[in-house]
Design brief:
Elements lengths: L8 H11 L5 H9 L5 E17 L6 E16 L4 E7 L3 H13 L5 H28 L14
Antiparallel strand pairs: 1-2, 2-3
Helix pairs in contact: 2-3, 2-4
């Protein structure tokens, strides 16, 4: 059902964006934008692992590819909003700030955070992806334009 509306799509997008950010980058942007508010831990940052599954060709039967280390946490602001974070790797500080931004995005500070934290992260991610695509495109060979030696 690709045409169905997902009310959680914006939240998935900002959490995914912060999960892909360089270590320490979200914290730097948040600290430049505002002072961190008080919060209470629902689940302090903890490190564990999760099983990664894959499919051959994207359509085959699923198989266990291996385990990946993840850091997760959950917190609640004094105003009641709850923030969650799941990040790849052993990054407790990044998980804390990601959960904090997640909670703050549910408050009136959302527009300010979108401009000060999420927009720069999106621009950096887009630039990195574009540079990677340009580098890959430079190695592309177009076999239909090569001259054959028999003509």
């Amino acid at each position: 059902m690709k045409d169905s509306f997902d009310p959680h799509a914006p939240r998935k997008a900002w959490l995914g964006l912060m999960a892909k950010a360089r270590p320490g980058r979200v914290a730097a942007l948040l600290d430049a934008a505002m002072a961190r508010p008080a919060f209470t831990w629902l689940r302090a940052p903890e490190i564990g692992s999760t099983m990664v599954r894959g499919r051959m060709g994207g359509t085959g039967a699923p198989f266990n590819l291996g385990e990946v280390t993840v850091t997760r946490c959950a917190l609640t602001l004094d105003t009641g909003e709850v923030g969650h974070a799941y990040l790849q790797g052993r990054r407790k500080a990044d998980a804390e700030v990601t959960a904090l931004v997640d909670a703050l995005m549910q408050t009136t500070a959302a527009d300010r955070l979108r401009d000060a934290v999420l927009a720069p992260l999106e621009a950096e991610f887009t630039a990195t992806r574009s540079a990677r695509a340009d580098k890959a495109a430079a190695t592309k060979v177009d076999f239909f334009t090569m001259v054959r030696g028999e003509d």
